[in-house]
User: Which sequence fits this backbone?
């Protein structure tokens, strides 16, 4: 949009990747004089906000300087030889599909740092906390910015250790087990992925993603592609997570601190789906074609499974944990993303990328909200919160309740909000998949996935009813599917007005439990960007699709276009 | 000079001119060792610590003498050789300095140097605790063993190879058993000695078979002659090849010759355990590479699959045993390092096995280069881990893994450094060099079509991560009781600093060691 010279762009991108790493090292050192702040803890938390803020600013400037007329062209590219022995090059660059993810990561990490500045999770010193968040940010940003297979693997691995410690040190109950499960699953997946990446690189003679993508796999025989897709896909599928490999996710989310959950759902999961689009689709199209129906089938099972699991958790008396519920809903949403990718059609892949971003915004917001709720009430257990009659958040903390309802309806895919377009397009893609794929199969998948959206609506609305509404006695009996559409309509109205101070139900809530604080200033600061972007992406999807579509067209067509 | 001398030597092959510069590094180490032994007799008890400094200087000098050799091999492709025999068609040499030799000698001498640094503190502590390790003998044995280890990569005939191997091992037995009045120490030494001697005997038998079948000891000639062995002698040669490998499998502590490792490491003084885990292993791998790739390429169909199976078994056995270590058992930290070194030996075997499947010469060189690169990484990082273990062992004599709990609170830097070393061994960022060293090993396996071995190794990497990370996590837990700060002795600090700087530098520029995996080590 604005002309920024290429060398400045290069510098900005390098800064975005390296900056947080340098910041992490600086966080471990004692604060320099003049920056000591009120206490060492406060100083280091402020340092985290500053660094992530600077990275966010750099990412925004990068977006402004990005040539939006040619999003399919790699921009701000740096290409330096690093390890000639392994043919590893520091090859950085952004195009229309990596830029949104880059900005999303920078934004979410900044919001997390801001949130922790005011609300540091319980645990050991914030020094290590800030350093780990920054390393995590660097790893995720690098994953989206690198264009070399081995560097991608390095970045992919870089997030493991920080996330492990974030869960194991600052998490809630059963955090050690959850942290182990997270790291062992992901590592097993990513080591297998390394084998696949090596196979691709050694057979094709280069590890450079751009070169490989323009070849469109012509160097690789079909059998190599099939093995490579199996191996790489396995690693990415664990991360995404795809249905039978997802079982680490609910545990990790339940145990992780709020900030950890937000980052895990908001950006870490995207690394998996991004890998599918960036590596597998263009580099091994024949292998993808072999596995696309299976991938779609697993994705659809994931959608239904995630929704059913959520429904089961949302039931009264199920002792469902809200964080666990949102984690399962992530399995369902990522199922839509995978379904979109597996169609191998431009519509589906665009939808997948859109749903990716939307999920990052909405689920990030939901985890923030549930975290805030847990901080206030001391529990995220749905039954304890609702206590048979509903937690009546609308009454006790109307803004919080409104935001939660907003997040819920955004998550179920209400038209006009971000969640809608991605899933819609993914379903469209499944309606007309790539010409080599079996259409009847994908039509079936589409039908099942569409049914999944209904289930999603059902559990989200049950959650809203049980958490936000109440305390009228006897409302628990009405928690059946028939009542949902009615409440849905009512909630979406409340949701739309959620960010504005709405005080309709404040009077009855205040008299019951006066202790529940409404949204604090810093919470507004951390959540408003997410709300605004959710609305923006819902009303103006072209902004995002205009970026991704040319790239997707090019990646799918490869050298042919 | 050498070329001229070999040309004129055809008349009288008995008279040889020795290229002293080429043989300088092992010779210096050996001479310094002898000098230390003699000086020990004349030094007053008070001044015994001078022996340590003298040995350090000797090792450093030997390291410096590697420098003039680096030029010669760059300018001329032909390596620098001495102790040559002129045959009717070509000459075969017993001592050759090429890139491979130099890199391994650097590893051996560097490893010995770091061991010496660690030993200074151990000996000093023993002196002040009046448990007296005999210093003169200690330094003499260490230097002798290092001299043998430095000789080995240069030897190019089976006899020299076995002699070097034994020179490297025999002093090591004595070193292990050196703790006076320590029952565990002498038991460990005996265990180590008996299993090693058995392995050597088997190797000698194998060598004699090979010699009987081919009539030569020189590795290069063996490589040429084994291809056209008389049909009747084929079985003999084949058996000889297998038996020869057994001895080297013992040295690298490959399954089923790995049982001596944990007890020996625990029984030995800690620096000696570090020495065995790095230099002892390097010796075994060098021998294995020389024997398989240079001498027995014709029998790649025999040793390739055998080594692949051995690699898979070794890494699995080592890692599973390390996983089963209870952190509260006495000496569990050293035991864990011992078992993990068995697991690492398995990874080191993978590229050598892959060399057995390679079709082209360059692939073979790349594969062995991957082993060398991995060994260099492993040497730096493992010595570093042992150095920190030695540091902790000074205050917590039992050296249990659980003693490392809260190390960060007591001594933040050494905790961070140990965490870095452990993650390098696990192969996860921030241990970037460990990650890329593993990538080269994986890529050697994938390139050779050993997909199953790569998958076995992948599973092992995950198992290993579990115990490395468990230990790492323990470092940052809240300490039990009040943290007590101790003064850290200078030599240990130096050793930790050197290894840490090496690890960090290599993580920034992995090319420094990985270049060997690219060009191969010629």
Assistant:
């Amino acid at each position: 949009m604005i002309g920024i010279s290429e060398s400045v762009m290069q510098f900005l991108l390098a800064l975005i990747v390296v900056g947080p790493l340098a910041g992490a090292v600086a966080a471990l050192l004692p604060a320099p004089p003049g920056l000591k702040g009120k206490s060492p803890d406060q100083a280091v938390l402020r340092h985290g906000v500053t660094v992530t803020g600077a990275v966010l600013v750099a990412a925004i400037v990068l977006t402004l300087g990005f040539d939006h007329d040619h999003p399919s062209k790699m921009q701000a590219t740096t290409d330096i030889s690093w390890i000639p022995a392994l043919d590893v090059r520091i090859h950085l660059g952004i195009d229309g599909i990596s830029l949104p993810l880059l900005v999303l990561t920078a934004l979410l990490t900044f919001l997390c740092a801001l949130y922790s500045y005011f609300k540091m999770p319980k645990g050991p010193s914030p020094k290590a906390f800030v350093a780990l968040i920054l390393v995590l940010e660097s790893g995720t940003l690098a994953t989206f910015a690198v264009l070399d297979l081995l560097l991608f693997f390095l970045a992919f691995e870089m997030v493991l250790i920080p996330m492990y410690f974030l869960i194991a040190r600052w998490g809630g109950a059963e955090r050690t087990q959850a942290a182990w499960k997270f790291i062992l699953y992901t590592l097993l997946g990513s080591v297998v992925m390394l084998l696949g990446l090596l196979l691709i690189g050694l057979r094709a003679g280069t590890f450079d993603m751009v070169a490989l993508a323009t070849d469109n796999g012509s160097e690789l025989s079909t059998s190599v592609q099939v093995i490579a897709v199996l191996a790489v896909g396995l690693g990415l599928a664990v991360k995404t997570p795809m249905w039978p490999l997802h079982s680490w996710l609910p545990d990790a989310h339940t145990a992780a601190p709020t900030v950890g959950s937000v980052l895990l759902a908001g950006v870490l999961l995207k690394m998996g789906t991004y890998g599918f689009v960036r590596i597998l689709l263009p580099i091994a199209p024949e292998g993808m074609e072999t596995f696309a129906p299976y991938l779609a089938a697993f994705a659809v099972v994931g959608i239904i499974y995630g929704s059913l699991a959520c429904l089961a958790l949302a039931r009264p008396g199920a002792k469902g944990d809200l964080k666990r519920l949102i984690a399962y809903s992530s399995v369902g949403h990522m199922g839509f993303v995978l379904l979109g990718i597996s169609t191998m059609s431009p519509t589906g892949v665009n939808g997948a990328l859109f749903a990716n971003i939307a999920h990052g915004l909405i689920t990030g917001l939901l985890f923030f909200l549930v975290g805030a709720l847990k901080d206030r009430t001391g529990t995220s257990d749905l039954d304890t919160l609702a206590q048979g009659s509903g937690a009546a958040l609308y009454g006790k903390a109307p803004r919080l309740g409104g935001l939660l309802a907003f997040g819920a309806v955004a998550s179920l895919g209400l038209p006009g909000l971000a969640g809608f377009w991605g899933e819609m397009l993914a379903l469209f893609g499944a309606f007309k998949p790539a010409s080599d794929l079996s259409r009847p199969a994908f039509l079936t998948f589409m039908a099942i996935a569409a049914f999944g959206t209904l289930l999603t609506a059902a559990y989200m609305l049950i959650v809203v009813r049980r958490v936000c509404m109440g305390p009228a006695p006897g409302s628990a009996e009405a928690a059946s599917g028939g009542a949902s559409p009615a409440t849905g309509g009512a909630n979406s109205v409340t949701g739309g007005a959620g960010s504005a101070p709405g005080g309709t139900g404040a009077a009855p809530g205040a008299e019951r439990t006066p202790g529940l604080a409404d949204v604090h200033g810093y919470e507004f600061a951390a959540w408003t960007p997410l709300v605004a972007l959710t609305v923006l992406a819902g009303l103006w999807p072209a902004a995002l699709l205009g970026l991704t579509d040319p790239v997707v067209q090019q990646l799918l067509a490869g050298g042919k276009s | 000079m050498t070329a001229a001398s070999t040309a004129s030597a055809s008349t009288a092959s008995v008279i040889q001119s020795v290229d002293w510069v080429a043989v300088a590094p092992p010779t210096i180490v050996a001479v310094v060792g002898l000098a230390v032994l003699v000086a020990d007799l004349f030094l007053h008890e008070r001044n015994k610590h001078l022996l340590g400094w003298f040995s350090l200087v000797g090792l450093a000098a030997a390291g410096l003498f590697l420098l003039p050799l680096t030029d010669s091999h760059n300018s001329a492709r032909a390596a620098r050789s001495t102790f040559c025999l002129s045959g009717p068609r070509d000459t075969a040499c017993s001592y050759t300095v090429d890139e491979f030799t130099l890199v391994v000698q650097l590893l051996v001498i560097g490893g010995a140097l770091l061991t010496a640094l660690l030993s200074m503190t151990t000996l000093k502590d023993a002196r002040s605790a009046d448990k007296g390790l005999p210093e003169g003998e200690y330094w003499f044995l260490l230097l002798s063993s290092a001299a043998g280890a430095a000789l080995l990569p240069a030897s190019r005939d089976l006899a020299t190879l076995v002699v070097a191997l034994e020179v490297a091992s025999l002093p090591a037995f004595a070193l292990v058993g050196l703790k006076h009045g320590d029952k565990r120490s002498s038991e460990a030494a005996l265990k180590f000695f008996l299993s090693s001697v058995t392995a050597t005997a088997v190797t000698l038998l194998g060598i004699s078979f090979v010699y009987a079948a081919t009539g030569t000891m020189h590795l290069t000639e063996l490589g040429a002659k084994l291809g056209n062995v008389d049909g009747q002698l084929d079985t003999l040669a084949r058996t000889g090849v297998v038996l020869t490998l057994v001895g080297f499998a013992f040295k690298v502590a490959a399954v089923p010759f790995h049982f001596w490792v944990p007890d020996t490491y625990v029984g030995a003084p800690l620096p000696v355990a570090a020495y065995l885990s790095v230099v002892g292993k390097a010796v075994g791998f060098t021998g294995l590479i020389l024997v398989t790739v240079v001498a027995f390429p014709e029998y790649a169909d025999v040793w390739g699959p055998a080594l692949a199976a051995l690699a898979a078994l070794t890494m699995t056995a080592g890692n599973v045993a390390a996983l089963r270590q209870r952190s509260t058992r006495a000496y569990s930290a050293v035991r864990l390092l011992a078992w993990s070194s068995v697991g690492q030996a398995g990874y080191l075997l993978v590229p050598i096995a892959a060399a057995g499947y390679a079709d082209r010469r360059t692939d073979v060189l790349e594969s062995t280069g991957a082993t060398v690169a991995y060994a260099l990484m492993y040497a730096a990082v493992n010595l570093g881990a042992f150095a920190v273990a030695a540091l902790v062992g000074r205050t917590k004599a039992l050296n249990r893994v659980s003693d490392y709990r809260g190390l960060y609170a007591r001594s933040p830097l050494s905790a961070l450094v140990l965490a870095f070393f452990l993650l390098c061994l696990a192969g996860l960022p921030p241990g970037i060099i460990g990650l890329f060293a593993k990538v080269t090993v994986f890529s050697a396996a994938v390139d050779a079509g050993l997909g199953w071995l790569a998958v076995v190794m992948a599973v092992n990497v995950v198992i290993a991560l579990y115990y490395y990370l468990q230990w790492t996590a323990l470092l940052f837990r809240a300490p039990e009781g009040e943290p007590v700060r101790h003064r850290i002795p200078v030599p240990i600090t130096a050793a930790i600093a050197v290894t840490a700087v090496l690890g960090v530098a290599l993580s920034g520029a992995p090319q420094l060691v990985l270049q060997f995996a690219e060009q191969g080590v010629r």
Observations:
- Residues 291-561 of chain A form one domain.
